[in-house]
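User: Hi! Is it possible to get a structure for several chains at once, not just one? Here's what I have:
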Amino acid sequence: MMDHERVVLLVGSPKGLKAGSSVRLGRAITDGLEEAGWHCDAFHLHAAVRTEDTMSELLASMDAADLVVLSTPLYVDSLPAPVIHALVGIAAHRAGANDADVPRFLSIVNCGFVEPWQNAGAQRMLQQFCSQARFESVGSLSLGATGTMNRKVRKAFKLVVKALREDILVPESVYELMKGRVIPRSLYILGGNMTWKRQAKANGVRDQLKAQPYKRA
Amino acid sequence: MDRKALILDGRIGEDMVAEQTLELAETWLRDRNWNVTTLRLCELDIAPCIGCFGCWIKTPGECVIDDAGREVARNIVGSDLVVYLTPIQFGGYSYELKKALDRSISIISPFFRKVKGEVHHKKRYARYPNVAALGWSKRRVDHEDDIFENLVRRNAINMHVPKTAVSILGPEDADARGRRIEWTLGEVAR
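Assistant: Yes, the chains can be modeled jointly so their relative placement is included. Here is the combined structure:
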């Protein structure tokens, strides 16, 4: 077994640890590590920041971790507010860490647009976090289309798991495999707009989709 | 003409820079006959966005959570200028300001459109306010300015902001800071 055997999964979606794209993508990495004998603790950041006790539990788990995996959605071109809140707490805690204690950090950001590169700003914020909190950033994966995985993306995730198990850098080929749209743009716009209409119809508000409740007089 | 400015004060706890910046911004705007509303976000009851999209497909245009987050969104739409005051956290907004902005997606449409080769959301309203973003941090960090400016620019695309101005307030003296604040407001408070 490798030295790196404890991984902490941080899920940044309000949907938490049971459902949603963020936990699915995060588990795609940590499940692969657990198969190799790693121990995984998972935390829902929205829940963790609610009390000092839950945040302390998260920090204690991170103190023992060799690798942290953050999987989060993009909200308004950035990280969701509770994720920022948690990262501020983690960075403050890490300010007192031993110089030799530099755990690895992998981030996974998914957005509701079809272009994965719309996550770039949030990924740069996470680089800042790693620098300030003294984590070694080993990679940052970016997915569009709410984390839809095609054959190339699934292959990329397998390569990431392999690299983490072997304690080597995430290979550049991963980013090549993940850089494009997984769905053609025009199809995504058409399908997305149809989905909004269908969901609104199911809720009985199809004719109110363009409502302007705050319109100025 | 009654021009309305909304100041979203995203400070985290006690913050002398926030206090000085707020006072300078309010004074500058009121001296020019702006009707100013200031919301100190850390003192308001605003739950984080739960990512349900209910504000688009259940109660279109209004968040399903009935708290002060709705008032923030209503005030944004009702303003000609929105001023962000925020300590910079990892190059982005404070979590207090971000919480309010996450809850404000109700003011745009869920429907997608193409903008310069990318997918973004359509407008819900005919007009949206300009944005002045005033950020600061205790110590300057490489690339932070660029990340912050880029975030404001990206938000402007998705939130249909006609014009933005951004300043990062450093450890300069109060006079220099005042000049930067005046320049920033002057760029978008027309």
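The longest helix of chain A spans residues 185-202. The first strand of chain A starts at residue 6 and ends at 11.

User: Great, thank you!
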